[in-house]
């Protein structure tokens, strides 16, 4: 056993340039996973607004992190195995049987697992209070909590990472059993071959990504966007992994057909080298692309929501107290009683109304096809919320309307078999966000001369009222609710702010947390790719020297190849992000974020920050690359 332990420790020490980053990444993932579970199960927040939503968001974040961890550790282990396979093969040549080699492999895994797990658990306990306070500050909640996490998240983390490590170990054991000693020795130099032909692989990839893009760009209902987002994301991720290398090879293959361009010495070596590098590293580059895109989308979404939180609330809740009463649910007499009860509630605290505004409207879920406005029964099949209000302009004729819409409105509209002439077009109705469902569907508001006589199918009159009070709005709402005998929703800016900002804060925290994890993962994969490129370039240096190329030509050619390879992931991630933005933009309508420019600015800033981080990491890790190719 001492021999196995000695060989294992020597192997790890010899390859510490790859093992140390792997152990650090392993411990970082353990810490992150344990921290999210600790925060999701934190006691003391049960009575706070939106706690169930916060716990759900943290649990979802934990699941996303779990999926990422499995894929990430599996990829990194493949690189470690590639580095150690030659040693394992040599052990076999020197007389060790497969069972003895497997003992060394198990010891390698056990040492790395134990060090990474213990370091991660220790870090999660050490930084628990800091992370807890960051969460509480972000969601704007102040409560007393424990200094240390409970044992539950630690035990769950140990169980999960033990299972992951066992699965990875089984994969290693299978490879050792399957390959002969010479195959293990040559494994590092064996070229990876795809089981699918390049053309077919490229077509499948284009089909998957194209379908994902089509779904993202052609979803009309924001509520459908929520369901389609996950389907589109899965298709694009699969398409990126299936055909990252294939599509690139097809594009570069087209360049090869340009003989004047391709057969120049510098272009010939560069293009041939790029094809080879991409073919060998397609999965790694696809992983960098997907993680980059995930980090950008998560951080862009988180910052958009958090920075726009107060603006969203003021749009949806423009006054301290807001309520609406539908004549579909209540009779004229009941509506009168409700208003009287609200007045009595205000009298309890001697509150006076300020900035009072009343809007009477009719609303119908519709689908607009050209000039025809069609009524629909299902909310999911609706594309537009048509809202009709009475105009202050008494000169409007019965067949004339004023239209408010951010989209182009036809000059004539057909509603319930009648034609209406649009005499004026405006972009936005003053209080459209505050009115039911207007934000979600991005509606069409029509001002008409006489609301009572306007035919909108079975739509009934809704009375919407809002006002400020000269005292505490929360206490005023409590007094009103205590006076009501009917179950109607009374809300307002101050009352909703605590709950909404708590949820926005939780989204910000989880999005930033996962975004940071993806960035760290991206950095480690870039580091490993630099090592791979370095070992491969070192061999290519010798080949190029033998065919007569100068040192300067060789360095220039290889540098341009490596640069092009590492430039592909952010370029593809940018395209994915732009398409994803259209779907995310619709999703944000559900929570009242209608300003596309604000969202685009947030995503743009995050992408620029990502590029700075990406190329900084590239520059730092390239030192490892140049160190390898400089070795004689």
Please describe what this structure looks like:
By secondary structure, this protein is of the alpha/beta class. The protein folds into three domains: 1-190, no CATH class; 194-317 and 493-632, no CATH class; 321-491, no CATH class. Helix content is 67%, strand content 10%. Strands 2-3-6-7-5-8-4 form a seven-stranded mixed β-barrel. It is elongated. Residues 63-181, 513-620 form the ABC3 transporter permease C-terminal domain. It is found in: Cell membrane.
**Structural category:** alpha/beta
If you average the pLDDT, what whole number results? 79
What share of the residues lie within helices? 55-70%
The ordered string of helix (H) and strand (E) elements is HHHHHHHHHHHEHEEEEEEHEEHHHH
Structural key phrases:
7-stranded mixed β-barrel; single chain
Provide a short characterization of the protein structure:
InterPro entries: ABC-4_Integral_Memb_Prot, ABC3_permease_C, ABC_permease_BceB-typ. By secondary structure, this protein is an alpha/beta fold.
Question: Strands, helices and their partners?
Answer:
Layout: H1 2-14, H2 16-40, H3 51-93, H4 98-126, H5 128-138, H6 151-178, H7 181-186, H8 198-217, H9 222-256, H10 259-262, H11 265-316, E1 321-326, H12 332-348, E2 353-369, E3 372-375, E4 384-390, E5 400-404, E6 412-415, E7 418-426, H13 438-441, E8 444-448, E9 462-469, H14 473-483, H15 493-546, H16 551-589, H17 596-630
Parallel strand pairs: 3-6, 4-8, 5-7
Antiparallel strand pairs: 1-9, 2-3, 2-4, 2-9, 5-8, 6-7
Helix pairs in contact: 1-4, 2-3, 2-4, 2-6, 2-15, 3-6, 3-15, 4-6, 5-15, 8-9, 9-11, 9-16, 11-15, 11-16, 11-17, 12-14, 15-16, 15-17, 16-17
């Amino acid at each position: 056993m001492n021999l196995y332990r000695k060989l294992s420790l020597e192997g790890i020490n010899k390859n510490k340039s790859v093992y140390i980053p792997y152990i650090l990444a392993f411990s970082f993932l353990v810490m992150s996973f344990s921290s999210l579970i600790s925060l999701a199960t934190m006691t003391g927040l049960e009575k706070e607004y939106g706690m169930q939503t916060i716990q759900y968001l943290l649990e979802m974040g934990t699941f996303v992190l779990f999926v990422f961890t499995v894929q990430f550790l599996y990829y990194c282990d493949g690189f470690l195995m590639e580095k150690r396979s030659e040693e394992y093969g040599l052990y076999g040549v020197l007389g060790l049987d497969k069972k003895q080699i497997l003992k060394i492999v198990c010891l390698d895994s056990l040492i790395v697992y134990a060090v990474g797990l213990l370091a991660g658990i220790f870090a999660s306990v050490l930084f628990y209070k800091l992370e807890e306070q960051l969460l509480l500050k972000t969601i704007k909640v102040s409560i007393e909590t424990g200094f240390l996490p409970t044992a539950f998240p630690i035990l769950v983390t140990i169980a999960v990472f033990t299972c992951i490590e066992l699965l990875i170990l089984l994969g290693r054991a299978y490879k050792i059993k399957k390959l002969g000693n010479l195959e293990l020795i040559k494994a590092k130099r064996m070229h990876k071959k795809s089981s699918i032909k390049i053309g077919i692989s490229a077509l499948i990839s284009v089909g998957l990504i194209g379908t994902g893009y089509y779904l993202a760009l052609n979803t009309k209902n924001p509520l459908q966007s929520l369901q389609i987002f996950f389907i589109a994301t899965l298709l694009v991720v699969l398409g990126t992994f299936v055909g990252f290398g294939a599509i690139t090879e097809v594009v570069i293959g087209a360049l090869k057909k340009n003989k004047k361009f391709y057969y120049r010495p510098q272009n010939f070596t560069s293009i041939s080298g790029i094809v080879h590098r991409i073919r060998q590293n397609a999965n790694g580059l696809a992983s960098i692309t997907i993680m980059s895109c995930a980090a950008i989308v998560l951080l862009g979404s988180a910052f958009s929501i958090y920075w726009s939180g107060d603006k969203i609330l003021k749009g949806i809740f423009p006054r301290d107290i807001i309520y609406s009463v539908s004549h579909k649910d209540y009779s004229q007499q009941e509506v009168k009683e409700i208003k009287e009860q609200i007045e009595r509630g205000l009298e309890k605290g001697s509150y006076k109304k300020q900035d009072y505004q009343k809007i009477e409207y009719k609303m119908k879920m519709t689908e607009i096809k050209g000039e025809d406005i069609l009524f629909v029964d299902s909310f999911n099949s609706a594309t537009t919320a048509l809202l009709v209000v009475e105009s202050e302009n008494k000169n409007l004729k019965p067949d004339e309307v004023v239209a408010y819409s951010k989209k182009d409105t036809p000059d004539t509209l057909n509603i319930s078999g009648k034609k209406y002439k649009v005499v004026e077009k405006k972009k936005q109705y003053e209080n459209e966000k505050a009115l039911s469902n207007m934000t979600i569907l991005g509606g069409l508001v029509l001002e008409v001369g006489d609301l009572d006589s306007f035919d909108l199918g079975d739509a009934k009159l809704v009375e919407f009222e809002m006002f400020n009070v000269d005292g505490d709005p929360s206490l005023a709402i409590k007094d009103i609710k205590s006076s009501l005998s009917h179950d109607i929703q009374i809300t307002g800016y101050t009352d909703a702010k605590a709950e909404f900002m708590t949820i926005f804060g939780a989204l910000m925290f989880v999005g930033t947390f996962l975004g940071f994890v993806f960035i760290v993962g991206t950095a480690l994969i870039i580091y490993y790719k630099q090592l791979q490129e370095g070992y491969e370039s070192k061999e290519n240096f010798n080949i190029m020297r033998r065919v007569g190329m100068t040192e300067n030509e060789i360095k220039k050619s290889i540098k341009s190849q490596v640069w092009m390879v590492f430039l592909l992931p952010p370029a593809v991630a940018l395209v994915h992000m732009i398409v994803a933005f259209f779907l995310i933009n619709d999703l944000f309508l559900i929570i009242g974020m209608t300003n596309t420019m604000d969202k685009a600015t947030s995503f743009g800033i995050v992408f620029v920050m990502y590029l700075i981080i990406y190329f900084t990491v590239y520059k730092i890790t390239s030192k490892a690359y140049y160190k390898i190719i400089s070795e004689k």
